[in-house]
Design brief:
It contains 22 helices and 30 strands. The longest helix has 16 residues, at 390-405.
């Protein structure tokens, strides 16, 4: 932004003889709402600028974009200790978003806090509970019937506590956020691991567990370990069959599923401008698969174009004024730097069973033959929160249209998942949906569906070896259909469409020919489609419920006989003693126990049920070689001890018949290892050291029994 003095002189010149107070004019210009749904909640670029300047003066060095946005949201920028990868930051996020599976526990915890209303703008999105079975409308009706009590609870809890509620059928949380809530420089936390999707609009959007969301909704500073920053410099430009999805597929192959842990991935360089805003969102979304805290792109004209097309030109204009704070400083330092030439990047397909096993599309067929993976593609699936933009649907339709022109349909089954009601309505209006149906596709509900395993698949039996290709983000064993023998590959929507038409992994659309209905051979041309619709987006049905201004008379709907919902009771406090004679994972007998795990424990989910259930069943500690970030925090929030072996080889010293005693809890302190005594059945013992990442606040959670218990103590 231009210096204040320069703005003053410009305004004085423009205003001439009219005696307006310059400061008030500037203040009015800065008042831009975060979203159409919250007209009285304003974007605070002025505060972001103030905090950045404080931190820049302290650190005396150029800042990355990630640092600007994160440090710009510090609770105490003047005194916060800042060291990448080591210190814990106390932050003030701008807003919270929750999907319906995790929102249930988050709202139950917020209710238990006793607070009357959320402190920051917050939303609930119904997208995870709709099972793909017959098609969009029928599946949605079925989900509303099956999940009625959950939807009623979330709707009434949202109304009671000031949380916006997006009804089932509105779309996937991350697409709704991109269309309505994300903006350059925002710090947003969401109770889903693919929240980083919002980085496509230049925001720091981080996936968390429900208890973290409760902290922010309660107005408590949110803690995050100061992230390292991995820079990805993009040069060249995308063209042909290469898509934004190929960027993250390539990065996943480089960094692996845990290479981004503890870091923000920051894309920069001249190649950025060749990627659409929704393409950037795709790249950031799948950054969750490399363990990254989040991913982000610098503000540019592609974001401005998207903001304007989604009715937020005022935000784009404000971002233009503050653009210096929405891009990295020249000469800033990255902890690791990766360079990718987009002009040389080839279409990729990753899998099976892991999203970091990267192959060029041209090579995957021969690799599959060598490895014994099924070549025949049973189902092609496009859409999901990762790839369901207007551009994605348009490029897929462009491929399908060519096949139809030669009398062909898909050899594989083919499904389409629109990311939002707005996308569904717009691709229906513009003919894309009909083209995809004509080629053999089934349009599913605006929801997560098969991407998260909500798929009532009928074409195979469990245990049957088969291959599917998707434009999703995650392909771990059993992820999509609960069949451990399904070989799932992830790629771009246009490559999925081409492969579904060909029906085999051995098809390379860049070089191979198809045979038309007339017997003549033809080659698919690289798809071309509009980045955004030429007309305005069609919003479709209104699926948003505003929270009432006065909710004093609102009741929250939780049936006392419910088998799915229950108001929470607090966990017991720590009894002040070491954890002695812990059995190795024995349930439901009142015995306190411990879990032993391997690398990246808790990978792939923000669900805090994975922390709550062990706590309810007597679990006290989880000891592993390493943790996934969100799950480690969830365990701490529920009063469990996530601990790591000081020497990873000690993992092999423990056996299921052993008992463990964890000592040193009376002197529990940040950075101080705990001692573990392994008691073997033959009477022998071994002693090992266990590390932890607890800070003082998190130790208070443990002593209180949970973070929620500690919140209540502080209120008293």
């Amino acid at each position: 932004m231009a210096p204040y003095s320069l703005l003053v002189s410009r305004l004085q010149k423009a205003l001439g003889a009219r005696q307006y107070h310059v400061a008030s004019v500037l203040c009015q210009r800065a008042k831009v709402a975060m979203s159409h749904f919250e007209p009285n909640e304003y974007i605070r670029y002025d505060l972001l600028e103030k905090n950045i300047n404080i931190v820049r003066k302290r650190l005396n060095r150029p800042l990355t974009l990630s640092e600007k946005i994160v440090y710009g949201h510090l609770d105490d920028p003047a005194n916060q200790e800042i060291e990448r990868g080591k210190t814990y930051l106390r932050l003030r996020p701008d807003r919270v978003a929750m999907q319906d599976a995790t929102a249930q526990m988050a709202m139950l915890q917020f209710i238990s806090s006793g607070l009357p209303r959320v402190a920051v703008p917050s939303t609930i999105h119904c997208d995870h509970l709709i099972e793909a079975q017959l098609g969009g409308e029928k599946d949605l009706r079925r989900a509303k019937d099956i999940n009625q009590e959950v939807y009623n609870f979330l709707a009434t809890a949202g109304a009671k506590y000031g949380v916006g509620f997006w009804r089932p059928g509105s779309g996937i949380i991350h697409q709704i956020i991109l269309e309505n809530y994300a903006y350059p420089g925002v710090l947003l936390i969401g109770t889903d691991s693919h929240t980083p999707n919002g980085g496509g609009l230049g925001g720091i959007c981080i996936g968390v567990g429900g208890a973290d969301a409760v902290d922010v909704m309660a107005g408590i500073p949110w803690e995050l370990k100061c992230p390292k920053v991995i820079g990805v410099k993009l040069t060249g430009s995308l063209s042909g069959w290469t898509s934004p999805k190929d960027v993250i597929l390539k990065v996943a192959g480089i960094l692996t599923v845990k290479g981004g842990t503890g870091a923000i991935v920051e894309y920069h360089g001249p190649g950025v401008d060749s990627i659409s805003c929704t393409g950037m969102a795709t790249i950031c979304n799948m950054g969750a698969e490399i363990g990254a805290t989040t991913s982000v792109f610098p503000y540019n004209h592609r974001m401005k174009k998207y903001l304007s097309k989604t009715g937020r030109a005022d935000i784009a204009n404000l971002a233009d004024e503050f653009k210096d704070h929405l891009v990295p400083d020249s000469g800033c330092h990255y902890d690791q730097l990766i360079e990718i030439n987009l002009s040389e990047l080839k279409p990729h397909i990753n899998g099976p069973f892991t999203p970091d096993l990267a192959h060029p599309v041209a090579e995957v067929g021969s690799v599959a033959e060598k490895e014994g993976w099924p070549l025949d593609i049973r189902v092609g699936l496009i859409g999901s929160c990762t790839n369901s933009s207007y551009e994605d649907m348009g490029r897929s339709a462009a491929v399908a249209k060519q096949a139809l022109a030669h009398g062909l349909q898909c050899k594989s089954q083919f499904t389409i998942t629109p990311g939002s009601e707005q996308i569904r309505a717009t691709i229906e209006r513009d003919g894309y949906a009909q083209i995809l149906r004509d080629v053999g596709g089934v349009v599913l509900a605006n929801a997560c569906g098969p991407c998260i395993g909500q798929w009532d698949r009928k074409d195979i039996k469990k245990g049957e070896k088969n291959t599917i290709v998707t434009s999703y983000n995650r392909n771990f064993t059993g992820r999509n259909d609960a069949n451990p023998e399904t070989h799932a590959f992830v790629t771009s929507p246009e490559i999925v469409t081409a492969l579904a038409i060909a029906g085999t992994l051995k098809f390379n659309p860049e070089t191979d020919f198809l045979t038309g209905k007339d017997g003549k051979k033809f080659k698919l041309e690289a798809p071309d489609a509009d980045e955004l619709p030429r007309a305005e987006f069609d919003p479709g049905q209104d699926t948003y419920q505003h929270p009432p201004k006065d909710s004093s008379g609102q009741q929250v709907d939780v049936s006392p006989t419910s088998q799915r919902l229950q108001l929470l009771e607090p966990f017991d406090k720590w009894d002040g003693r070491d954890l002695e004679d812990l059995q190795i994972l024995i349930k439901k007998h009142g015995i306190r126990w411990v879990v032993i795990g391997d690398e990246n424990y808790g990978e792939g989910s923000s669900r805090e049920h994975a922390a709550l259930e062990p706590r309810h069943l007597g679990g006290r500690a989880i000891i592993t070689k390493s943790f996934a970030r969100i799950h480690e925090t969830n365990l701490k929030k529920q009063g469990l001890l996530p601990l790591t072996f000081a020497d990873p080889a000690d993992y092999n010293k423990i056996h299921p018949v052993d008992k463990l005693t964890i000592k040193g809890l009376k002197d529990f302190a940040p950075g101080k290892p705990l001692t573990c005594i392994i008691k073997h059945p033959n009477g022998t013992q071994e002693t090992i050291l266990l590390n932890h990442t607890f800070n003082e606040t998190q130790i208070e959670w443990f002593r209180a029994g949970s973070a929620l218990n500690r919140m209540k103590e502080l209120q008293k």
